[in-house]
Design goal:
The complex is a heterodimer of chains A (about 120) and B (about 110). Helices cover about 0% and strands about 50% of the residues of chain A. In chain A, a hairpin with a 6-residue loop joins strand 5 (about 45-50) and strand 6 (about 60). Chain A has strands at about 5, 10, 20-25, 35-40, 45-50, 60, 70-75, 80-85, 90-100, 110, 115-120. In chain A, strands 2, 4, 5, 6, 9, 10 and 11 form a 7-stranded mixed beta sheet that branches. Chain B is built from no helices and 11 strands. In chain B, the strands form 2 sheets. In chain B, strands 2, 4, 5, 6, 9, 10 and 11 form a 7-stranded mixed beta sheet that branches. A 4-stranded antiparallel beta sheet of chain B has the order 1-3-8-7, with no helix packed on it. In chain B, strand 7 and strand 8 form a beta hairpin. Chain B is mainly β and about 110 residues long. The relative contact order of chain B is 0.34. Helix content of chain B is about 0%, strand content about 50%. The chains are: A mainly beta (about 120), B mainly beta (about 110). Chains A and B meet through strand 5 and strand 10 of A and strand 4, strand 5 and strand 10 of B.
């Protein structure tokens, strides 16, 4: 069965960096787009970024573009989110999610359990 | 970017009620709309894609309809397990956009 397991969350000060990682199993990883989605405490879902199946393209939400970088390693079945210059408003549970297809515009059919990132001084 | 507006934000209903949630897109997204269910402390679960295609294992009391800019999620007879928050999501563009969510709680 499909499993997505996030790691790397925690407390970080504003302006600092943090790297999230997601290990995938149970499907052919290099055939699918992979996404990060976040949810601030008590708020709705916000899509963050996508890397397409071969890692040749990625897209970002306006709120994180230029600060966050998504990357994938198809040899290790991992997708990472490098978060630089974090802000208080980046505080959220971050979910790793698998797209239905190989490209960017797809629904998300499997999700990790989520990992909390708290930005605070 | 496409904006997605869900209504109502909250909905109080009883077991057995027919429930309808609406999602409006700021521009046409054809049929490229998904619906998710999320329970507290859990990851979202995909219910419907392409506006009306039910995911395998999702009860048939759930249905979706619409195209272009207006979409609906209907639960024909609300069950205790259905009290949750529901989100629409467009995937017509590079950047996926979620609606603000509709919390369905017990009347």
């Amino acid at each position: 069965q499909v499993q997505l397991v996030e790691s790397g969350g925690g407390v970080v000060q504003p302006g600092r960096s943090l790297r999230l990682s997601c290990v995938a199993s149970g499907f052919t990883f290099d055939r699918y787009g992979m996404h990060w989605v976040r949810q601030a405490p008590g708020k709705g879902l916000e899509w963050v970024a996508v890397t397409i199946y071969d890692g040749s393209n990625e897209y970002y939400a306006d709120s994180v573009r230029g600060r966050f970088t998504i990357s994938r390693d198809n040899s290790k079945n991992t997708v990472d989110l490098q978060m630089n210059n974090v802000r208080v408003e980046d505080t959220a549970v971050y979910f790793c999610a698998k797209g239905v297809g190989h490209n960017y515009g797809n629904p998300l059919d499997h999700w990790g359990q989520g990992i909390l990132v708290s930005v605070s001084s | 970017d496409v904006q997605m507006t869900q209504s109502p934000p909250t909905l109080s209903a009883s077991v057995g009620d027919r429930v309808t949630i609406t999602c409006r897109a700021s521009e046409s997204i054809s049929k490229w709309l998904a619906w998710y269910q999320q329970k507290p402390g859990r990851a979202p679960k995909l219910l419907i894609q392409e506006a009306s295609d039910l995911e395998s294992g999702v009860p048939s009391r759930f249905s979706g309809s619409g195209s272009g800019t207006e979409f609906t999620l209907t639960i024909s007879s609300l069950q205790p397990d259905d009290f949750a928050t529901y989100y629409c999501q467009e995937y017509n563009s590079h950047s996926l956009t979620f609606g603000g969510g509709t919390k369905v709680d017990i009347k």
